[in-house]
UniProtKB/TrEMBL annotation:
Keywords: Repeat, TPR repeat. It comes from Paramagnetospirillum marisnigri. This is Uncharacterized protein. TPR repeats lie at residues 62-95, 235-268. GO terms for molecular function: glycosyltransferase activity.
Length: 586
């Protein structure tokens, strides 16, 4: 724990106070000041004896108790320090130093953060010109996930800080802004911090991460290389550098940097998982799938039954306790579930007697139609008896996807009976479904989603009825195309079964990388997939087709261009499709 910053720390003052103590041995004020002076000089045992004497000669002196608490904090005796500060605030409830010390103690105790916030707020109210309390308050609020409140605390600390350019506070503020995905603000604040402290490894790393989140991968790379040049020793910096190289499509360089991070921290799951994604995007499937198994190592949300009853890829005969039942556990996004459920039929070939899929409730009706499944249940409900369990994406490694042909017999899902909605009439026009935005919480959403206004050239193509496949707030986040140009379809759907019915009614889907693509691909519908320069691992770095879904055509954005050329290419193809569809004149 960090000692609270103190004043009056030079040797001369200590000697002066020691002489005063000799002349006035029963003065709690002199003893308390002497304790602080000795503490600042690193003479902790003498400081403790002076503080203890101050309390002994004046048990009702709150300032003496506060000083004793500060000395005890420096000696890492948190429980004793807490008791001293609690007595201090009882004796002198308007002493900001006592509330600050109490807040520091509480913040270090398991479960004490909420009480620490209250204590530190008292300290701030009693000493509004002291930056120490709001600084610590910001850190405690960050630990509680209260990032907006932390931002307010850090801003308050910056306003009253004696240093007009407090780099550490700016760094903390930048991190809090990044946590709330206020990335442009985070970059601006962290740039200011870096100007003040260009030699700070932490600031360079944090600035690099924020730059990458805004799409500035070259800037991120420069920051992380600067951190390494400054002497960064941690694996995290190498991993951050690798992320910036990966985002620039420099996969071989990223591979080397990820491996350097793993060499330094071989048991860190995040580094192995990022290496896996880099390998898979590179088409190095065997090692990629092996490394991808690290994704759940030590993960707090990993279902315990998957650790207790892991499937080793072998047969599960019917004479097992639960009839040779394998539980498939869905993971990650809706699209992942749809994509990887294709492996279910192969399980029976491995000698698995019965297959149960636990998936997102919104998908139960739809993926329940996939072959190879004996039962499909919502993952939010109780699980049926089973003998072994495996996560759905692990099946890709079991069946060596990529090195062996991917199961691609289409369609492998079907629209359930009774699913569907009443769509606005197309009146004989080509029916095209559009999706331009993915899930905003996806870490790469800034890279894959498209502002709706950029779709205008597509919407100008005649003889096409365009249907929005975007739902609610997701659509609003990146805007909507001009009114009257798009027929709403998605908001009519109750679940993915209804969405599949809508997709099945389309002649064509044009979409960014989102779950709609997987629904359409699994149904065997034509899809034009609009991809960023460095896409998700499943689409690889090159090619116009995908082994996962034969009906897809991949339109890839270049590194040095916006989405406009991709939209223009789609417009050209769409005009051609309308022309080819029109009946020839007699």
């Amino acid at each position: 724990m960090n000692q609270i910053p103190l004043n009056s720390t030079d040797i001369a003052e200590e000697r002066f106070l020691a002489e005063l103590d000799r002349l006035h041995p029963d003065s709690p004020d002199i003893l308390a000041r002497l304790a602080l002076a000795r503490l600042a000089l690193g003479r902790g045992d003498e400081a403790f004896r002076s503080a203890e004497r101050a309390v002994a000669v004046a048990p009702g002196h709150g300032g003496a108790r506060t000083t004793l608490g500060q000395v005890l904090i420096s000696q890492r005796k948190v429980d004793e320090a807490r008791a001293a500060f609690e007595e201090a605030v009882r004796l002198e409830p308007t002493d900001a130093r006592a509330w600050l010390g109490l807040g520091e103690c509480l913040a270090s105790l398991t479960g004490g953060q909420a009480a620490a916030v209250d204590a530190l707020r008292r300290a701030v109210s009693l000493a509004p010109r002291d930056s120490r309390a709001p600084t610590l308050l910001g850190a405690v609020l960050m630990s509680l996930g209260r990032h907006e409140d932390a931002i307010q605390a850090y801003r308050a600390a910056i306003m009253v800080c004696a240093n007009p350019n407090p780099a550490d506070l700016l760094n903390n503020l930048g991190v809090a802004l990044e946590r709330l995905e206020r990335r442009d603000e985070a970059v601006a604040v962290l740039r200011a911090a870096a100007l003040v402290r260009p030699d700070s490894i932490a600031i360079q790393d944090n600035l690099g991460n924020s730059l990458l989140a805004t799409g500035n991968a070259p800037g991120a790379e420069a920051c992380h290389r600067r951190a390494l040049a400054l002497g960064a020793k941690g694996a995290e910096t190498w991993s951050n550098l690798a992320n910036s190289l990966h985002r620039q499509g420099r996969l071989d360089e990223a591979d080397a940097a990820y491996r350097r991070a793993i060499q330094m921290a071989p048991q860190a799951p995040k580094f192995h998982t990022n290496l896996a994604l880099n390998l898979l995007l590179s088409g190095r499937f065997a090692e990629g799938w092996r490394e991808y198994e690290w994704r759940w190592r030590d993960h707090p949300n990993f279902p315990p039954h998957l650790r207790e009853f892991p499937w080793d890829g072998g047969p599960l005969p019917p004479d097992m306790p639960h009839g040779g039942t394998l539980l498939l556990q869905a993971e990650q996004g809706y699209g992942d579930t749809i994509q990887f459920v294709r492996f279910a039929p192969l399980l029976k070939q491995r000698g698995v007697t019965r297959v149960v899929l636990a998936c997102q409730p919104e998908l139960v009706r739809l993926v329940g139609s996939a072959p190879g499944l004996d039962q499909t249940i919502p993952e939010t409900g109780p699980l049926p008896p089973f003998d072994r369990a495996v996560t759905l994406l692990s099946l890709a490694g079991v069946f060596k996807a990529g090195d062996e042909p991917v199961p691609a017999q289409m369609p492998y899902i079907s629209v359930p009976e009774g699913a569907g909605v009443d769509l606005p009439e197309a009146e004989g026009r080509l029916k095209v479904g559009l999706a331009w935005a993915g899930r905003p919480t996806h870490g790469d959403d800034w890279n894959r989603s498209i502002p709706a206004r950029l779709l205008a050239p597509l919407l100008d193509v005649p003889d096409v009825a365009f249907y929005s496949l975007q739902r609610g707030a997701v659509a609003e986040r990146l805007g909507r195309p001009p009114a009257g140009r798009l027929l709403d379809a998605a908001d009519l759907c109750a679940d993915f079964a209804d969405s599949a019915a809508v997709v099945a009614a389309m002649d064509l889907i044009i979409s960014v990388d989102t779950a709609v693509v997987h629904v359409a691909g699994a149904l065997g519908k034509p899809v034009w997939l609009l991809l960023p320069p460095v896409p998700d691992f499943r689409w690889l770095m090159r090619g116009e087709t995908s082994a996962w879904y034969p009906s897809l055509r991949l339109l890839r954005r270049g590194f040095d261009t916006g989405w406009e050329p991709v939209i223009a290419q789609a417009e050209t193809w769409l005009r051609r499709a309308v022309t080819d569809r029109a009946p020839s004149s007699a």
